[in-house]
Amino acid sequence: MISITGTITAFFLVIYLLSQNRSLATAMLAGSVLVGFTATDNFIANLQAFFPTLLTALVDPITIQLVALVALVTVFAYIMKETSLLQDLIEITRYFINNLYLTITAIPSVIGMLPIPGGAIFSAPIIAPIGKKMEMSGARMTSLNIYYRHLWYFSFPYMPSLIIASSLSGLDVYTIAAMHLPIVALMIIIGWLYYTKTSVDQTKRPLAEKATQEEKKNKDNEDKPSAGKILSVLMPFIIVLFPPIFLPIEFTTSLIVGILFVIILKKNTFKLRMIKDGFNGKLTLGVLGIMIFRTYIENSEGVFNLTELFMEAGIPLLLLAIIIPFLAGLLTGNHVGAIGIAYPILLVLFNDSDLYSLWHMIIFSSSYFGYILSPFHLCNLMTVEYFDTTLKKYYRDLVIPFTGTAAGITVLSIIYYYILNG
Questions:
Q1: Alpha-carbon distance 173 to 187, whole Å?
Q2: Residues in the chain with pLDDT < 70?
Q3: 61-82 and 120-133 helices, crossing angle to 10°
Q4: Where are the domains of the chain?
Q5: Distance separating alpha carbons of residues 293 and 7, to the nearest angstrom
Q6: Residue 338 CB: number of other CB atoms within 10 A?
Q7: Phi, psi values for residue 301, rounded to 5°
């Protein structure tokens, strides 16, 4: 019981500290201490395991890689901005995509196909200038960035969470992707309706429309970007994003190479201070705090005891299939972790069911929502930090598109129910 109380209390403590504008690192470390001291019902054992768990978190290769990745990403983005390559990329994108909304949604969506931890920080600096031109608030840019960044989690076959789900469920990854494809289509439609209709204050809409008309007029007067310019602008992203997918290279290594490439390419405008100014120590420490918190959660009995408590209470299977994965995603802020917790516990309950694939979709979707909404989700925290907004404002902005998506999945589940029972 102590572990359950500690986990739930730590969850609300972190949220409270963040709402009081405490630093991300402070909030996460406070939550980690509470979870660590209440990991089991044996307080002495908790004390004995506290520092070894902390050391495990600090030396974990994933922690080291992620902290280095975030530090390098912020430097890379800053140098791209200061050397005008980011602005060049925006201009080229807008030249070929004659719509501001398509541009600002396409960028996080495309980057979202790449399995980068905290990948929203890649797209945030790119869409920021477009969002400001469209009169978007920091919360709206955060909401849009997160929504489209995670659009393909349901159906892109190379997503780690989809691969893990396939492995644990025994369902073919392409079968899962095909079954989830209507969800992706639904999210595209809902996102388009929501972000195009409500992004600009109605009192400012004439100004936004005028700006769009001016963009079209300016485009007609612009020369088509040369192939050389397009290549020079895209090459840093190609160097950073694609080699780790096709070669045994870490993203941190490709980022270092990408930064060096930009320095050489823009040697006339590059200044050494850009590396120092681009390093975001506050964000980097925050990420370290998240990874420490995650380790304490994984070594605590809290999440598992909470799950057992729900099952022993005789809660209906449908509610279990919704609540357990949602809480796992919410408490871990990690989709792969949420699937790793929820699938082994729940899928055994449905092994003999003719609706096995439908139960899988419900569990996967629920874990996705918990993960996306988690205050410990790396993309949420980094994007909120980048756009200088708050989790409260971000959640408020995300309510409508996510409620619509949840309603759509409910309808789709009913349709699949009758198809599979047919």
A1: 20
A2: 15, 18-19, 21, 90, 94, 98, 114-119, 158, 197-223, 307, 344-345, 348, 422
A3: 30
A4: 2-59+284-421, 62-136+199-279
A5: 11
A6: 31
A7: -85, 0
Q: Structure tokens of 200?
A: 């600009």
Q: What share of the chain is helix, strand, coil (3-state, %, to 5)?
A: 80, 0, 20
CA terminus-to-terminus distance, the chain: 44
Q: What's phi and psi for 183, nearest 5 deg?
A: -65, -40
Long-range CB pairs of 319-327, under 8 A, 24+ apart, other chains included? 320/346, 320/349, 321/346, 321/359, 321/362, 321/363, 321/366, 322/362, 322/366, 323/366, 324/366, 325/363, 325/364, 325/366, 325/367, 325/370, 326/366, 326/367, 326/369, 326/370, 327/303, 327/370
Structure tokens at 394: 């971000």
Query: How far is the C-alpha of 210 from the C-alpha of 365, rounded, in Å?
Result: 40
**Rg from Cα positions in the chain:** 22
- Can you tell me the distance from the alpha carbon of 383 to that of 375, in angstroms, rounded to the nearest whole number? 12
| Pick from 32, 45, 44: nearest CA to 6 | 32
Q: Between vectors from CA 377 to CA 260 and to CA 136, what angle results, nearest 5°? A: 75
Q: Is 137 left (phi over 0), alpha (psi -120 to 50) or beta?
A: beta
Predicted confidence at residue 203, as pLDDT, reads 42
How many other CB atoms are found less than 10 A from the CB of residue 352? 7
**Which pTM was predicted?**
0.66
pLDDT given at position 99: 73
pLDDT of the residue at 209: 52
pLDDT tens, residue by residue, 43-93: 999 999 999 999 999 998 878 887 887 788 778 878 887 888 877 776 777
